[in-house]
Specification:
The mean pLDDT is 97. It contains eight helices and eight strands, in the order E-E-E-H-E-H-H-E-H-E-H-E-H-E-H-H. Strands 1-2-4-3-5-6-7-8 form an eight-stranded mixed sheet, sandwiched between helices. The two termini are 28 Å apart. The protein is α/β, with parallel strands linked by helices. It has helices spanning 42-53, 81-86, 90-106, 119-129, 148-156, 174-184, 205-208, 214-234; strands at residues 6-10, 13-18, 28-33, 58-61, 111-117, 135-139, 161-166, 193-198. Strand 1 and strand 2 (13-18) form a beta hairpin.
Length: 235
């Protein structure tokens, strides 16, 4: 399947925009924060298209400012992820996200959900901590600080939080996940919290899962369906 949406400028920021072909609520927008491969990566574009088909205006801002990780960085131990990351910290990535959201507000959007994948996961959580968004969905996040990131969310966030992980993800250990549950679970996070773990799935499965692997296929499809169910419940 080929991506079907287009790049548009919103608030002066290039965005891959998925507009539903069915009737949808024009006062709502879903912000999709991609992994390190950005808005030019076909898998990220296809995710935007999938959400749009479900009836959500979906916008993936180029918050990496035209500097995504190159395709050869995928599973390449020689690629210096740390050096790349230092050029894409929140002081660089947050301003374009804020510009897009403000431009959408100026255009009549009043409610926002965010879904963040890998590198974009942390920045999605930050939007919830700052009470910019009404719904929070994150799959296999990077750059999170356990417990500090989630304590901040518990103290300040008001957005129901869905966290999708793979059992083989090395970014958040089983111990870390238990700590997160201890902070947010059992009703401690009043807006709502759910953590789902997909067996046999590595880091990145919700975007870059191996579709020839039965478990990763199930995880990628299932995490998307979980996201839609979360949006239907809370957005």
């Amino acid at each position: 399947m080929q991506p079907s949406s287009k790049i548009h400028s919103i608030g002066g920021v290039p965005c891959y925009v998925g507009t539903p072909t069915i009737e949808y609520d024009r006062k709502k927008a879903l912000i999709l924060l991609t992994d390190i491969f950005g808005v030019t990566f076909s898998n990220n574009k296809l995710l935007v298209d999938d959400f749009a088909r479900k009836g959500y205006l979906t916008i993936a801002p180029d918050y990496l400012l035209g500097d995504p990780a190159p395709p050869y960085a995928w599973n390449n131990s020689k690629f210096n992820v740390y050096a790349w990351t230092q050029n894409h910290l929140s002081d660089v990535t947050r301003p374009p996200i804020d510009k897009v959201i403000q431009a959408l507000r100026d255009g009549g959007v009043t409610s926002f959900a965010v879904t963040g994948y890998c590198f974009g996961g942390r920045y999605a959580i930050d939007l919830a901590i700052d009470q910019v968004v009404d719904v929070l969905i994150v799959a296999h996040p990077k750059q999170v600080d356990v417990p500090a990131t989630f304590q901040a969310l518990a103290e300040k966030g008001e957005a129901p939080f869905l966290l999708e992980l793979g059992s083989e993800d090395t970014e958040l250990s089983a111990c870390d996940q238990e700590v997160i549950d201890g902070i947010l679970g059992d009703g401690k996070y009043a807006p709502g919290y759910k953590r789902k773990v997909w067996d046999g799935c590595p880091h990145g499965f919700a975007v870059r899962g191996d579709m020839l692997d039965e478990q990763q296929f199930a995880g990628k499809a299932g995490s998307f369906e979980d996201s839609i169910a979360w949006l239907k419940q809370y957005f």
